[in-house]
Amino acid sequence: MRYLAIDHGVKRTGLAICDAAEMIASPLCVLRGPKDICGQIAQIIDKEEVEAIVLGLPLNMDDSEGSQAKKVRLFAQQLGRHVSVPIHFQDERLTSFGAREKFEATGLPKAKRRTLLDALAAAEILQNFLDRPDRT
């Protein structure tokens, strides 16, 4: 099954995809701004033959859901009106931190890292989902 992971943000939304064997998550792209983001994601789902979505859910450190998690759940409802594939949620705590750490080791310029960070964070979200024994 091919999964598309989404690290949803106000300014940028990172996307990542996995191979058909569900082993490796790879950064795909970063979408800018909120304008027609659901339509753009729907096109990517068709083009990449995605069968399910994994949406990063920003939980608080105590496992509670704050205002950002509520915004992500609202986005999931909006996206659900544009796509027919199932949407799963994955705890995204510390994924941006992990992505940032990986990028710092590469030596890429800061501007280039910022551009790619959201897609790498989406790949971290997806890999965490793929590694979960209870995901099925």
Characteristics of this structure?
Nucleotidyltransferase, domain 5; 5-stranded mixed sheet; 136 residues; globular; 42% helix; alpha/beta
What fraction, in percent, of the residue positions are helical? 40-55%
Question: How many DSSP helices?
Answer: 4
Structural class: alpha/beta
Order of neighbouring strands in the sheet with most strands? 3-2-1-4-5
- Poorly predicted tracts of residues: none
Q: Number of folding domains?
A: 1
The average pLDDT score comes to 87
* CATH architecture heading: 2-Layer Sandwich
Radius of gyration, taken over Cα atoms and rounded to an integer in Å? 14 Å
Under CATH, the topology is which?
Nucleotidyltransferase, domain 5
Task: Provide the β-strand percentage band.
Answer: 15-25%
Overall 3D geometry?
globular
The level 1 CATH classification is Alpha Beta
SSE pattern: EEEHEHEHH
How would a crystallographer describe the biggest sheet?
5 strands, mixed
The tally of strands reads: 5
End-to-end Cα distance: 11 Å
CATH superfamily: YqgF/RNase H-like domain
Written overview of the protein:
This protein is of the alpha/beta class and 136 residues long. 42% of the residues lie in helices and 23% in strands. It contains four helices and five strands. Strands 3-2-1-4-5 form a five-stranded mixed beta sheet, sandwiched between helices. α3 crosses α4. The chain is globular and about 40 Å long. The mean pLDDT is 87.
